[in-house]
Design goal:
38% helix, 5 strands, 125 residues, 5 helices, 3-stranded antiparallel sheet
């Protein structure tokens, strides 16, 4: 995936880390307007986003060429999940992204399977 670089300057510095505080990226907002889960899949619609959106919005949109989870986008942007959800909900609101909730499983998870996974993890650690 190619992430567009903003023209305003770098958002990350190798030595200093993030140059812009996460709450600044979301405009101080902590609640997304769209219902997004970490496993929600988002994808670009092809519509151009509103011009007043910031460079982080552009980078997030660049990661959404194919269905991508909110968690994956958050990791690529190196932003907290709640900030990423706010950015993505802005893009959903303006029609640049579509979001699909994670599939719910009607059958409960088998307890023996969970215990086997837990046992395997304990053996590795």
């Amino acid at each position: 995936m190619i992430v567009p670089t903003p023209t305003d300057g770098p958002l990350l510095d190798d030595a200093a880390g993030r140059l812009i505080r996460p709450y600044t990226v979301s405009g101080g907002r902590t609640r997304p307007t769209a219902a997004l889960d970490l496993l929600s899949m988002v994808m670009a619609t092809g519509s151009a986003p509103q011009p007043q959106l910031g460079p982080e919005h552009t980078m997030a949109l660049g990661l959404c060429g194919c269905p991508t989870s909110v968690a994956e986008i958050s990791a690529h942007l190196r932003l907290p999940a709640v900030v990423t959800k706010v950015l993505l909900s802005d893009l959903v609101d303006c029609g640049a992204l579509t979001a699909r909730a994670p599939r719910s499983h009607d059958t409960p998870t088998d307890r023996s399977l969970l215990e086997a996974v837990l046992d395997g993890l304990r053996r590795r650690l």
